[in-house]
Input
Amino acid sequence: MDQFIMQPIGFVSSPYQDQTAIPKGLGAKHETEGKLNILPALEAGLTDIEGFSHLYVLWAFDRTEAGFNLMAHPPSDDRPHGLFTTRSPRRPNPIGLTVVELLGREGSSLRVRGIDMLDGTPILDIKPYLSNIPAEKLRRGWLTEAEARKI
Amino acid sequence: MDQFIMQPIGFVSSPYQDQTAIPKGLGAKHETEGKLNILPALEAGLTDIEGFSHLYVLWAFDRTEAGFNLMAHPPSDDRPHGLFTTRSPRRPNPIGLTVVELLGREGSSLRVRGIDMLDGTPILDIKPYLSNIPAEKLRRGWLTEAEARKI
Output
């Protein structure tokens, strides 16, 4: 079986010290500011990044109980849903994905808004956010239904 | 140093047998259809996925030369740019990220539009695409400048 070994390119500096502090569920706003501290040896890879308003951050769930259930219980609904339709941290591969707004850079440290990771979370990759799906084409499945039930 | 070992949750079925066949650079359209063949043992994790119009696919660059340069030469520009502002396949961690439109599901196989991976590419994760960055807030850095120079 193929295996891929990933190593951190840096670590998140976040005000969240434990999972219970992270806003979750319907209407949770992710406007928390924090830093992406990239390893100094990789700083040149950030050249020109100031021109981008938003970034994808790929990171590792490093403090999540091992294993996963194929049906997940997301905090935004009282019904279970297929794991791959949720952002549950317990997944076959422990990769998290967050879109952040880039506020500034100091050397190899990026100041960002939209942090939803724990302090010290290992960062695996940063990619530019380049395009949107037009809102009128976007369907959000069970999440839309869960929102409607809560109104 | 922390390490994270990733294994495929499935494989891409794509018309692209080699890198040169994949549209790249400015104006490249990614409307190619293909399949995400998830391992049958994980099929329950796809429950309810039909309600979502778009998905994030995280996948592994499994046929890319090892190593990376911190300055990359993207096909959309004749100037080099910081690796983390590009989608270069040669990165510290070989993770690719593609947004696809979900066209249909047959068991553990998802028919999608927007494939830009090679045939047989290992899939690491699937996540729901839930929200957009408003277009008026989006800045695309050197890519916007490169487009302006080509007009």
Remarks:
- The radius of gyration of chain B is 17 Å.
- The helical segments of chain B are 141-150.
- The CA atoms of residues 64 and 140 of chain B lie 26 Å apart.
- Chain B touches chain A through 65 residues (CB under 8 Å).
